[in-house]
Each structure stands twice: as C-alpha cells, then as structure tokens.
Amino acid sequence: MNAESGANAEAGQGPGSSRVDALLARARAGLARLDPAGAAEAQRSGALLVDIRYAALRERDGTIPGALIVERNELEWRLDPSCPHRAREATGLGLPVVVVCNEGYASSLAARSLRSLGLYRATDLDGGFQAWRAAGLPVRLPAEPAD
Q1: What backbone torsions phi and psi does residue 68 show, to the nearest 5 degrees?
Q2: pLDDT tens digit sequence for 77-103
Q3: What are the beta bridge partners of residue 68?
C-alpha cells in the first residue's frame, strides 16, 4: 500500500469514490430517508417539508404545495427553535422535518445538520424534488411569463 492509497483508505474512500461520497454516507447513516409517497404521508401527518432548492430551480420546476421555502444558507437559523430568526413553523426540537433539495444529495447533508442542532426527527426526501414530481405528486407550477 502506497502513501496515497493509505490516505484514501483513512478518508473512507475506495476506488472511484470521493471524500464527499464518504461524507454523504456518514450523513445518511441513521436517517430514515423517505420516498416521495412517504414524504407526502409525513406532510399529511404534520411533518414540515422544507424546500432548500435555490430560486432558479423553483422558478423552473415549481414547488411542493405547503412546503416551507428556506434557502440552504439560512436553514439552520430558520429551523432552530431557539433562534430569534427562526421561521414561525420551527415550533420545537421534536418537529418532524423533511428536507427537500433537487435530487436528494444536499438534503441529506442539511438533515444531518438539523439533527446536530437537536431536531432529532429531521430527515430528507430520497431523490429530492425530481423524485416527488416523477411520482406524480402535487406540484405548484411556476407562474406563466407575462406577454
């Protein structure tokens, strides 16, 4: 084993994987990720869906009705129930939260971050918004451009 392959092994990397892949796997460990039907059922049961996609994606693809829109760079401040900048929906650490990104990668990292704040029921939508839409679940389409 040479020094480089030893360093890769220590970083949790195998051939063809990266440090970010290892980070993602660690973030997902212990998350009960939801498929689109499970996320829709969680929302009907009172879970807060939080869409962290950036504005251009929401404007292009639409949004999930009832989801709270929070830019990723504001997520922790808006969902921490002890923060003065929290969203009114951030009612407590036991709040079930389902984080939604575009394809289900950034949402896993975001859900893990929320768990580190104490939101122990935070998880994410496996496959993200694209999986939700592909499952035929409700989507609020972006406004049509004015003529």
Answers
A1: -80, 130
A2: 999 999 999 999 999 999 999 999 999
A3: 50
